[in-house]
Design brief:
The protein is of the alpha/beta class and 252 residues long. The chain has helices at residues 17-28, 40-52, 67-80, 110-138, 160-180, 202-209, 220-231; strands spanning 8-11, 32-35, 56-59, 86-89, 141-148, 185-192, 242-245. It has a single domain (8-245), classed as 3-Layer(aba) Sandwich (Rossmann fold).
Length: 252
């Protein structure tokens, strides 16, 4: 699809679902992929799958909320494969323990929303900070952040602080795009719609897909294909954008 031969990509939260789909897709285009996840076993498994399929990957487990760990991991990747050319900020959480338990804001415990902001917003800041200097030195870079439709529209499903973090990431990417455009670096955001892999009940899947104009939920591969484009040489004039990837759902 796009030629990413010789590029080093780092995908955060790539141990499952959307991030794993993105990592596999970038590897198929020829990139060497640093597969990050907070869960080391997940990162290793995805990296092994990519390698077994003929791609090039390494596992780099770290917590995106820990700036020291992020900085050390980017240095490790640079030493093992070369500096990161393509950063995909995908790691995200719907709440502590990844329960996706949802609260109206009035009832939301402060610790709950601190973690949401920490992973979904500070995680993006930390990884972007670690990625930028080597990209500027090289005069080339791609930063792609996976946000959510929740960051662009109001919803009544108890995701207010998740939306705040995701909207924050959108604003951050727009500014990073402007600050770094002259260094050959692009920064874009994907406002993703529903991609649910664990719903086994066909009736529930149908109900969730019903309001989506295309008539189906998204897949990790849908995200991977868009990210592969945004990561490519061909996307050099595409920067500072927020792209809705959602089967046609209205997001503004
Ligand atoms: N799935 C959807 O419907 C959907 C919709 C809109 C946006 N998104 C966004 O897409 C991204 C991926 O979503 P998903 O459904 O694949 O999520 P997921 O929960 O299935 O996977 C996220 C991965 O990130 C990892 N992770 C969490 N916190 C981390 C941290 N601090 N450091 C490193 N890794 C960490 C988890 O271990 C997990 O493997 C997220 O940013 C999410 O907010 C998802």
């Amino acid at each position: 699809m796009f030629n990413l031969d010789g590029k080093i990509a780092l995908v955060t939260g790539a141990g499952q679902n959307v991030g794993a789909g993105i990592a596999r897709c970038l590897a198929r285009q020829g990139a060497t992929v640093a597969v990050n996840d907070y869960h080391a076993d997940r990162a290793r498994q995805v990296a092994e799958e990519i390698t077994a399929a003929g791609g090039s990957a390494l596992a780099v487990p770290f917590d995106v909320t820990d700036l020291n760990a992020v900085t050390a991991a980017f240095a490790e990747v640079a030493e093992r494969t070369g500096p990161v050319d393509i950063l995909v900020n995908n790691a995200g959480t719907g709440g502590p323990d990844r329960t996706m338990e949802m609260y109206q804001f009035r009832e939301m415990p402060v610790d709950y929303w601190r973690q949401i902001i920490d992973v979904n917003l500070y995680g993006v800041l930390n990884c972007t900070k670690a990625a930028l200097d080597p990209m500027v030195a090289k005069g080339w870079g791609r930063i792609i952040t996976i946000s959510s439709g929740a960051g662009t529209v109001g919803l009544d499903i108890g995701v207010s602080t998740y939306a705040a973090a995701k909207a924050g990431a959108i604003g951050f990417m727009r500014h990073i795009a402007k600050e770094n455009a002259r260094h050959g670096i692009t920064a874009n955001t994907v406002a993703l719609g529903l991609v649910l892999r664990n719903v086994k009940d066909p009736e529930l899947v149908r109900k969730l897909a019903d309001p989506i104009p295309v008539g189906r939920l998204g897949t990790p591969e849908d995200a991977g294909h868009l990210v592969a484009y945004l990561a490519s040489e061909e996307a050099s004039w595409m920067t500072g954008q927020t792209i809705g990837l959602n089967g046609g759902t209205t997001t503004s």
